[in-house]
Amino acid sequence: MISSQIELHKLYGGVVPEIASRKHIEKINQVIEQALADAGVTLEDLDAVGVTYGPGLVGALLVGVAEAKAISYAKKLPLVGVHHIEGHVSANYIEHPDLEPPFLCLIVSGGHTHLVIVKDYGEFEILGRTRDDAAGEAFDKVARAIGLGYPGGPKIDKLSDEGNPEAIEFPKGKIEGAPYDFSFSGVKSAVLNYLNQAKMRGQEVNAADLAASFQKAVIEVLVEHTMQAAKDYQMEKVAVAGGVASNRHLRQAMKDACERNGCLFYHPSPIFCTDNAAMIGVAAYYEYQKGTRHGWDLNAIPNLKL
Ligand code: KG4
Ligand code: ZN
């Protein structure tokens, strides 16, 4: 059960924080009611209440935390706070019961780009991260510049099918001495410069070629850094997570690279890549098993660290 606000935020070209919180408070009880009904259970059947408490927009997080506390208080259930990114990683467990830590995971969302070793459930060693824009953020900004609208990732994914990824050479954003870190502001700026120069010269831009070439530059660096880490840390299992992990070209490139290097490749279905409550439920399940419990002082933490 997903209640989406995307149509509303599209009007503004991105998420408007106050609108997001207001929609959360308006919808949260209906969504919970429907999800319980779909699962054929009631609140009486639950063992614990899991909730995301960060990172993210504080207004939206507070709605969830307050709701979770209310249910937990009323039904005398343990409260388990979850990190949003732990949720994304845990989306992989939903359809792959054989997947157990340790494994390498590339997390690519609208707000994060992290390369981590999942050492145990909820236990991460961060190998690399973006120095500037997140991968999804770069997709969204480039999509806006081409005039594709919000959210841009899926639109670039689709438009790229019709384009030539070799048409334009964009920089790959490597960082000297940091083989697992990422930088996407360079490729984003290169796309914007390309568009500006074409406009000044009065040249037509082939949007599909541009989208495919940009996407290739981003995907190549994501795959190269991930496979380098897999080799260096002798990881046999490689997973992807986060909204950008639903990108078909990234999944194919990652699958091919894993096959070449003798690694097993895992990815959630697209519906579990982009933000969803199922992944938070799974993360909360493992935290609950480990004994994690939060008190009534649980708060929303917008910049919660992994
Ligand atoms: O994980 P997510 O749903 O939310 C965050 O936690 O940020 O990720 C959203 C991001 C957006 O930037 C969106 O453009 C991107 O994921 N995205 C994609 C695709 N689907 C969603 N990027 C590339 N290709 C896609 N198919
Ligand atoms: Zn997310």
From TrEMBL:
It is an enzyme of class 2 (transferase). The lineage of its organism: Bacteria, Bacillati, Bacillota, Clostridia, Lachnospirales. InterPro entries: ATPase_NBD, Gcp-like_dom, KAE1/TsaD, TsaD. Required for the formation of a threonylcarbamoyl group on adenosine at position 37 (t(6)A37) in tRNAs that read codons beginning with adenine. Is involved in the transfer of the threonylcarbamoyl moiety of threonylcarbamoyl-AMP (TC-AMP) to the N6 group of A37, together with TsaE and TsaB. TsaD likely plays a direct catalytic role in this reaction. The keyword Cytoplasm applies. Binds 1 Fe(2+) ion per subunit. It is found in: Cytoplasm. Residues 2-281 form the Gcp-like domain. It comes from the Bacteria. Its EC number is 2.3.1.234. GO terms for molecular function: iron ion binding; tRNA N(6)-L-threonylcarbamoyladenine synthase activity. The gene is tsaD. This is tRNA N6-adenosine threonylcarbamoyltransferase. Belongs to the KAE1 / TsaD family. Keywords: Acyltransferase, Cytoplasm, Iron, Metal-binding, Transferase, tRNA processing. GO terms for cellular component: cytoplasm.
